[in-house]
Design a protein that fits this description.
Blueprint lengths: L2 E5 L4 H12 L3 E5 L19 E4 L6 H10 L2 E4 L6 H6 L1 H22 L2 E7 L26 H22 L3 E6 L2 E2 L10 H10 L4 E4 L5 E3 L1 E2 H12 L8 E4 L4 E3 H12 L5 E4 L1 H4 L15 H7 L7 H21 L1
Parallel strand pairs: 1-2, 1-4, 2-3, 4-5, 5-6, 6-11, 7-10, 8-13
Antiparallel strand pairs: 9-12
Helix pairs in contact: 1-7, 2-4, 4-5, 6-8, 6-11, 8-11
The protein binds uridine-5'-diphosphate.
Uridine-5'-diphosphate (UDP) binds next to helix 6 and strand 8.
Length: 328
C-alpha cells in the first residue's frame, strides 16, 4: 500500500479521491487551505486512522516538505478554478496556480517523487479540432480577456511539469480534466451543473448563458478518481499528457432541459447574454470533446457512468443536502 499526498484534498474532486484511496487501504496526507474546499467534504473519513489533514497552503514550505517526504505519489489538485473566480480574482488565479505547482514540483524534485498534476480541458481554448487530442494545438484569445489567464496558468503548469521530467527526471504525469461533475461540486464559482440543479430544485428559471448551443462533455467524478488511482501505479504515463473525460456531448440548452426533466421542476429557461453573465467581450468555447484513446489504452479503463446516471446521482445528493440543511 502506498502513501499519497493530495493537495486540494478537501475540494470536490480531491475529497472523492481521498475517500477512494483510503478505501483501497492507502495512507493519505491532505493539504488544503480551505479557500474553496471545505472540511465538510471529508466528513465521512475525517476520523479515519490512515488520513492526516492539515488546513495549509501548498506554499507552506516546511509542511509541504514533510508531506512530500512521506508520500510515494503526490496528486496536485490544489488550484483556483471556476470562471467566476477567474474573472473576479485574476491575480489570485495566476499566482496560486503557477506558484502552487512550482512549489510542489520543486519539493518533489528534491526527493524524485511522482507527481500527478491536474490540468484542464480549458487549455484547448478556442481550438476547433474536435475531438481534442493531447498533441493538438492550443488556441487562446487576447490577454485582455481574463478568462484565458486560467488556461495559460495551467499551460505554464504543464510546461513546468514536463520540464521537471525532462531536465531533472522527476516522474510527472499531466491529466486534462473535462468538466468533472458529481456530489460536493458547488455552483458558487460558476460550474453549470450544480447551478442548474439548484435552480431547478428551487423552481427558478435555469440561467443559460449565450445561445445555449455551446456544448460540453461532463465526466462523473468516480470515473476521474478511478483513472487517477490507476495512473498512480502506472509508469507508462510518466512524462505524458492525458485527457480524462467522457466523450458524451451535450449542448448547454440540452443539459438545462435534461435537468428540468429529472428534477420534475416547473422552472423554465432564461437566456442571458455572456457580457451580462461574465464580462464585456467574454469568449466561450463552442464545443469541447475529448479524444480518450490515450488514457483508455494506458489504463484499460473507460468511463462507466453515463451523463444521465451522473446527473441523477448529483441530483440525489443535492436533495439530501437540502434535507440536512432543513433539519439543521
Ligand atoms: N453556463 C451557463 N449557465 C450557468 C453557468 C454556466 O449557461 O449558470 C455555461 C457556460 O457559459 C459554459 C458552460 O455552461 O458555456 C459550462 O460552464 P462551466 O463554467 O461549468 O465550465 P467551462 O466553461 O469551464 O466549461
Amino acid at each position: 500500500m502506498a502513501t499519497f499526498l493530495v493537495t486540494g484534498g478537501a475540494g470536490f474532486i480531491g475529497s472523492h479521491l481521498v475517500e477512494a484511496a483510503l478505501a483501497e487501504g492507502h495512507r493519505v496526507l491532505v493539504l488544503d487551505d480551505l479557500s474553496s474546499g471545505s472540511i465538510e467534504n471529508l466528513s465521512a473519513v475525517r476520523t479515519h486512522p490512515a488520513l492526516e489533514f492539515l488546513p495549509e497552503s501548498v506554499t507552506s514550505k516546511s509542511i509541504l516538505a514533510e508531506f512530500v517526504d512521506r508520500a510515494d505519489v503526490v496528486f496536485h489538485l490544489a488550484a483556483t478554478v471556476g470562471v467566476f473566480n477567474i474573472i473576479e480574482s485574476p491575480v489570485a488565479t495566476i499566482e496560486n496556480n503557477i506558484g502552487g505547482t512550482e512549489a510542489v514540483l520543486r519539493m518533489a524534485a528534491k526527493k524524485k517523487k511522482k507527481v500527478i498534476l491536474t490540468s484542464t480541458s480549458e487549455v484547448y481554448g478556442k481550438s476547433h479540432r474536435i475531438p481534442f487530442r493531447e498533441d493538438g494545438d492550443l488556441v487562446f484569445g487576447a490577454t485582455s480577456k481574463s478568462r484565458w489567464s486560467y488556461a495559460c496558468s495551467k499551460v505554464i503548469d504543464e510546461f513546468l511539469a514536463l520540464a521537471y521530467w525532462r531536465e531533472f527526471g522527476v516522474p510527472t504525469v499531466i491529466v486534462r480534466l473535462f468538466n468533472t461533475i458529481g456530489p460536493r461540486q458547488i455552483g458558487r464559482y460558476g460550474m453549470v451543473v450544480p447551478r442548474f440543479l439548484n435552480q431547478a430544485l428551487a423552481g427558478q428559471d435555469l440561467t443559460v448563458y449565450g445561445s445555449g448551443q455551446q456544448s460540453r462533455c461532463f465526466t462523473y467524478v468516480s470515473d476521474v478518481v478511478r483513472w487517477l488511482l490507476l495512473l498512480s501505479a502506472n509508469d507508462r504515463a510518466v512524462g505524458e499528457i492525458l485527457n480524462l473525460g467522457n466523450p458524451e456531448e451535450i449542448t448547454i440548452t440540452g443539459l438545462a432541459r435534461k435537468i428540468i426533466e429529472i428534477t420534475g421542476s416547473s422552472a423554465g429557461i432564461e437566456f442571458i447574454p455572456y457580457e451580462r453573465a461574465y464580462e464585456l467581450g467574454f469568449e466561450d468555447m463552442e464545443r469541447r470533446v475529448p479524444d480518450i484513446e490515450k488514457i483508455v489504452a494506458c489504463t484499460s479503463y473507460s468511463p462507466q457512468v453515463t451523463l444521465d446516471a451522473a446527473l441523477r446521482h448529483t441530483r440525489d445528493w443535492c436533495l439530501e443536502r437540502q434535507k440536512q440543511y432543513a433539519i439543521a
